[in-house]
Fold this protein.
Amino acid sequence: MAEPGSRLKLDFSLHELAGSVGDFGTILPLVLAVSAVAGLSIGYILLFFGIWFIVTGLYYRLPVPVEPMKVIAVVAISENMSAGQIAVAGIILGILFLSLGFWKWLDLLEEYIPRSVIRGIQLGLTLLLLRTSAGLLSGDVMVFLGALALMTVLYGLSRFTRLPDLSAIVVIVVAFAAGIAVKGFPGLAPLPMPQIVVPSPSDIPSALWSMVVPQALLTITNAILATSLLASDLFKKEVRPARLSRTIGLMNLTSVPFGGFPMSHGAGGLAGQYRFGARTGGSNVYAGIILLLLAFFFASPAMLGLVSGGFFAALLVFAAIEMAKYGLKTDSYLVTGTIAILSLTVNMTIAFVAGICVAHALKAIRRRQGKGRTLT
């Protein structure tokens, strides 16, 4: 398999536009919540997301997603982390992954980590997406069911006709229209003046242990190894882990100090974009343009808050279904299932370590059994 390059053409069809919003159900709820808690400008968060969506689309020529770093987002929201602590975490991770992208460590890790473990991370992410979807409902059950029904109908039409699957983009349009009808149009919100985030030395210890370590493990497994594997599954194209690591490093070092939020790639986002029609980097360019428009003209919590959580929940369910299809393609349901359950009930770091232990224990048992048969 050849790595993506100039020979891969960008497509800007309606299918790509439909797929471009396939990961917005993950991105928008997280960045809105983080902005409210940490005091980061939602405009600059969206600005850097938009820029890097376009850059990755042009660079990979495939719909390689750009997502918030989930561990940092969850910890920042739950523990009320400051902008400085978030910036420290993003800068440290940026240096780490840019460095890893130029060494051979990721190739060694790819050989050492069994595919059943990566499939477990994918299946665990499926369960986490479903849990996040349930958490977004908060009284919007009827909206969720309506959005789910609409997406199902549109998906059915795309399967039995030549129409593209426009379910995600139609749901987003309906969501904003419904929000304006209920709450009114909040008005335009121009991008404010930029502010450089200057962390203090006291931000480092808490950021290091609460965010950097668990996020690094999740990024290596889900954002790099699982994304590389899923790209191979979906497109039969090789996206080497080292390349993904380098772009993750660059994204964070060029964005976080200037008000951006720590970013990575992600298998869940790739599954979501693919599910709604993305097949080339053109969908990333579309997503980047949409996010830039939001950043420059609609960057206010009031504007983005027009969308009911039920709509986001429906998008996440469809993304989770797409992810589950590949998470179940495993050669060890014991390893994959163990990781998935622990990811949901404990955390992904412990799940990963447990999965590695189970996978290598099973490998040792099989080796002994093989030697026993040889002797007899």
In short: Residues 203-235 form the longest helix (33 residues).
